[in-house]
Fold this protein.
Amino acid sequence: MERTNPIPVTGARYLLWYNGVLALIMAAAAWAMHLQGFQLPMAMLSSAVAGQALLTGISVGIQPRLRTDQGLVYLGILLVSMFNLAVYLFATGGHTNPVISLLLLPLALSAVALRPWQTLSLALVVVVLYTALTHYFLPLSMPEMDHANHGAQADAHQSFMQLHLFGMWLTFAISALLICALVIPLAQSVREQQQLISQQREKMLQDEQLVALATFAASAAHKMGTPLSTLSILVDDFKDLVQGQPEWQQDRELMAQQIELCRSILQGMMQRADSLRQNRPAATNVGDLLQQVREQFNLLHPSFELQLDNQCCAGVVIADGTLEQALLNLLDNAVRASDHAPVLHAVEEDGFLRLEIHDSGPGIPETIQQQLGQPLVSSRKDGLGLGLFLSHATVERLGGELSLHSSDDGTTIKVSLPLQGESHE
């Protein structure tokens, strides 16, 4: 069974407006013709107007469900509305009634909100109804035209034609206004929804890539645990062998520190990978986060010391275990680009944590800048192209923004994260 497309919320709302406006136009036009002295079958007209009013009430009741219902419901409402209008036109002159052009409005709504085959079906119904109304209708007549003399009949006929031409102009203007008021916003809403769907698909693809990388990182960390444990045992065994040799003792202690650092990093990778897979964000104190980043950077780069310019209050940000690594990736890129210790500026502004990292390197070419944030794209010959991609994805996933500004003086990376409030520690 073929599935039809869901109706946008705005499409359901404009369908309601169309039915309501059409009911008002039918009632107003019938009342105007009655005041002009036209003989009208009031019972048939009342039935058509009442039917359209009832359809408007039904549209009000089912509007909340049209966002998930199938398009056949939308199509059915448009068809019933068109048949109501056809009955009304049959009783008021058929194709000679200027209001007949309103038959095109349901077709315009269908073209925006429904599938092509449904719109083509409506177009066929519109053509059939218009053709039938050119042959079968109740002509409009005025009492004075049946009993007055020839001159009065001519004057009445001229008055009727003037009224008919004015009615055609008025109906054309109303149709143009309704198309602008209903179809243009509806089409804009559809385009916005399509853009949102495209963004969601890109985000899902990015999340899948992150989960795949997290799984790979956890697997690599698990496999590297065994050789690191072996190296740790061997270094401990060297403790007795280097007694009385200070230089060797320093080397052994440095090796032990580096092995312990690797084990700590791998353990952190596994924890972050698990947190990423399970999507468990938590509130993190800004001061603690920046201090941890500083300590980790100093361990990874013993010859440099990260300068931290923290002007933030004791607020908190939402993190999922990967934010610290994301900031370390950015700092690592900065120190590799300039061979100088970077400075991490942190300020609070408009409820956001603003972080800024600047390096004095040669900058990043514009062609590379346009591709940064994508996997396997790097400005360094020895880079894997994953650092900035992971950092960018992490910041966006936490509701923040990451921007990069490069010039001849170096590169500045700005990170913005929403603050959640004051810390209670």
